[in-house]
Design a protein that fits this description.
- The complex is a heterodimer.
- Chain A is an alpha/beta fold.
- Helices cover about 45% and strands about 10% of the residues of chain A.
- Chain A has a five-stranded parallel sheet, with helices on both faces. Chain A has a two-stranded antiparallel ribbon with strand order 4-5.
- In chain A, helix 2 runs antiparallel to helix 12 and helix 7 runs parallel beside helix 8.
- Chain A is globular.
- By secondary structure, chain B is α/β, with parallel strands linked by helices.
- In chain B, helix 8 packs across helix 12.
- Chain B is globular, with a radius of gyration of 19 Å.
- The mean pLDDT of chain B is about 95.
- Classes of the chains: A alpha/beta, B alpha/beta.
- Chains A and B meet through helix 6, helix 7, helix 8 and helix 14 of A and helix 3, helix 4 and helix 5 of B.
């Protein structure tokens, strides 16, 4: 069976799949799903209808603001020497909150190292994320408690873990689904392309959520691809959709559709959330060396929070008291994070030996004993 | 399991028993289904356990390893077959950066009960990338357990013990010994990580594992004709190493020679020699010697016999050890 006919068969199996998004030739202009314009106007898209209450809209706004506040606090803490590094999500809040809020409790997310907004949606304590960047652990949360895997730093590795996890869901006969987060840079990795292959041939319930933030450290997307990334999916035999990554409503609607598509036995989906990394790659990076400030300014006009606030205001869905309340909550979060990080103790050095293996390993136990004896020899001694 | 089984059949039976005893056990690999694997180690298993438990995968080793990790996160117990030793390198990143570290970085919240079966080492007249001995890479990686059987009994029970382990295990199968036969008992007679004294002796200790155990036993038999009693220890586990058994032997014999196919330089023998020297210094009559492959890519098969340690090279090392 050719890929084309496979795609056609899948289209029939899943009503509501946007035909126009995956049948165009590679020379056609990319199409972008948008439900909320940068000016805050609601746009209807028959392919991705979104029924949403006023409370939900306000709740999304709260998520976006708090996530941005947390992120800003983390950047400051790095500058103050409290964190070794921070990878800011500034500009990508809508892509992360929209997709994160599309997940059901039983769904599972596999993040990169920048998915602080998704972590927020999965109820991972922000201090856990900061522990990793402070260097007290490599991620302190229980992935299976939050259905949110540990941050993965090697680019793209987690897309295979997500696919394997999704293969397990199929074996279990469950109706959960998985999101694999990655970026435009990772799209070039072999692991990502292998994940696409495995997910496709096993028809696994996984949504590949690519935040195309235009920059892989200093490399623009033109170094990674000659076609819009979402069109890569067609070569693997599953649908690809490009969504306005700064539009939280579109990200929510498209991801919800994709997860349902996947959990219903229709196989994987690739979502390309078209967004922008407003800050540096990490606090160690200097974007002034490789990109123009005009570009950043142009993207500022598409800010995800500004547009949702404009919508809430125009529609009369939130008043000054609401916004003031969110601002106050945001300050409280900042304070909690700041105090939490500063009060975070260093782990005991014997952490080095903990959990290397699940079952005892004689060499690790010997070296632990050697270390402890060595450390004890300093107690109160002149070498201390 | 009465009678004699080949190592290949003993492995096949181990996989069958593991599939029977735990519904979460799944096998993954290239050509392991209808074909039964290129060495037929999985022969008949897909027919009996179905395609969802004996999974033919795309030809992408990193993909196999990465999805096995994902399955383990979902509560499965994957047993991965890498078709040949030289094909594991595309999966190396997933093994050393992800599989090996997952339990530690998750502070013990997740376990990685993944067994990676690799037919390894040379001696079968193969083309390149089919004869590699890469055990040191894996043994050097904290978080992995590394074992290699040399007999049907160990092949069977060590594989079952590896699959039951909650840690990732690199299971190195000496492919040139697949057709050697031996008895398989109804129960394991050693824990997974214990070394085995396969021939007692008094004059020197040969330490080997996997395909070289047989070579060392042949060398010991030949030495006996010359009046020398060589002890042969099958290491069995390369991480962790059962230093207790090795130390006790060297303290009795005073001489130790490590034999492996992998290049001597930075090989398992280097670590064993260093640690045994530390532990047995005042008991040694000679430095711990090493016999192994040369520091060169595995050669074309017409000259592989010159590369691989054989009976004469082992006995040559014994002579040198005794001459000190």
């Amino acid at each position: 069976m050719t890929v084309k006919s496979t795609a056609r068969a899948r289209k029939k199996a899943a009503p509501g799949v946007p035909d126009n998004l995956r049948t165009k030739g590679s020379d056609a202009p990319p199409e972008l799903v948008q439900l909320l314009t940068p000016e805050g106007e609601r746009v209807e898209n028959p392919e991705f209808p979104l029924a949403i209450t006023d409370d939900e809209l306000r709740s999304l706004y709260r998520d976006l603001v708090l996530v941005r506040r947390f992120d800003a606090e983390a950047t400051s803490l790095q500058r103050q020497g409290e964190l070794g590094l921070w990878a800011s999500l500034l500009g990508q809040e809508a892509a992360q909150v929209g997709s994160g809020r599309a997940m059901r409790p039983g769904d599972y997310a596999f993040p990169t190292y920048r998915e602080h907004g998704v972590a927020w949606c999965r109820d991972v304590d922000p201090l856990n994320l900061l522990g990793m960047f402070r260097g007290v652990n490599h991620g302190g949360w229980d992935p299976n408690e939050k259905n949110f895997h540990l941050y993965t730093i090697v680019i793209g590795s987690q897309t295979l873990h997500a696919t394997g996890y999704a293969m397990g869901i199929t074996k279990d006969g469950a109706d959960d689904a998985v999101i694999a987060y990655f970026g435009d840079g990772a799209s070039s990795q072999g692991d990502v392309n292998e994940a696409f292959t495995f997910a496709s041939v096993y028809n696994s319930p996984v949504v590949f959520f690519c935040q195309n933030n235009q920059w892989a450290i200093s490399e623009p997307t033109t170094v990674q691809t000659r076609i819009p990334l979402y069109r890569r999916a067609s070569g693997f035999g599953f649908p690809g959709v490009r969504v306005d990554g700064n539009d939280v409503l579109a990200c929510l609607a498209v991801t919800r559709w994709a997860l349902d598509h996947a959990r219903s036995g229709n196989g994987p989906v690739l979502i390309e959330a078209f967004t922008y990394r407003m800050g540096a790659h990490t606090t160690s990076d200097d974007p002034t060396r490789y990109r123009m400030s005009e570009e950043t300014e142009a993207w500022k006009a598409k800010d995800p929070i500004t547009r949702l606030r404009a919508h809430l205001e125009k529609q009369g869905l939130a008043d000054e008291a609401f916004f003031a309340g969110i601002d106050a909550e945001s300050e409280e979060l900042g304070l909690r994070v700041r105090e939490g990080v500063r009060g975070m103790p260093d782990p005991d050095p014997t952490l080095i030996f903990d959990h290397v293996y699940a079952e005892p390993h004689t060499l690790v136990e010997e070296e632990r004993a050697e270390y402890e004896a060595y450390a004890a020899s300093f107690e109160g001694g002149e070498n201390h | 399991m009465a009678g004699q089984l080949s190592i290949a059949k003993a492995l096949n039976e181990a996989l069958r028993k593991s599939l029977e005893s735990d519904p979460k056990t799944v096998l993954m690999g290239e050509d392991i289904g209808k074909l039964g694997g290129v060495f037929r180690i999985t022969d008949g298993l897909q027919k009996d356990f179905g395609e969802s438990r004996v999974i033919d995968t795309p030809l992408a080793e990193s993909g196999i390893m990465g999805t096995a990790i994902g399955l383990a996160l979902r509560g499965y117990r994957p047993v991965v077959e890498i078709q040949f030793d030289g094909f594991v390198y595309p999966a190396f990143d997933q093994i050393v950066s992800q599989l090996a570290k997952m339990h530690a970085r998750a502070l013990g919240h997740v376990k990685m009960p993944v067994t990676v079966r690799i037919p390894y080492a040379g001696g079968i007249g193969a083309v390149e990338h089919h004869s590699e001995s890469h055990e040191a890479y894996f043994a050097h990686t904290a978080g992995l357990r590394v074992v290699s059987p040399s007999s049907a009994q160990d092949a069977h029970w060590m594989l079952r013990q590896s699959i039951e382990s909650d840690d990732p295990v690199i299971f190195l199968e000496p492919k040139r010994r697949y057709w050697d036969k031996g008895e398989v008992l109804d129960a394991p007679d050693l824990p997974l990580h214990a070394a085995r004294v396969v021939r007692p002796g008094t004059d020197a200790t040969l330490i080997a594992y996997g395909p070289m155990v047989k070579v060392c036993l042949e060398a010991a038999a030949a030495a006996e004709e010359e009046g020398r009693q060589l002890e042969v220890i099958d290491l069995r586990s390369l991480s962790p190493v059962d230093f207790g058994t090795l130390e006790a032997s060297l303290k009795r014999t005073g001489r130790g020679i490590v034999v492996h196919e992998a290049p001597v330089f930075m090989g398992m023998g280097a670590e064993l020699a260093a640690r045994l020297t530390e532990r047995c210094f005042y008991h040694l009559e000679a430095p711990v010697l090493r016999v192994g492959g040369y520091f060169a890519p595995y050669p074309p098969s017409r000259v592989e016999e010159a590369f691989l340690p054989d009976l004469d090279r082992v006995l040559d090392a014994v002579d040198r050890a005794l001459a000190f």
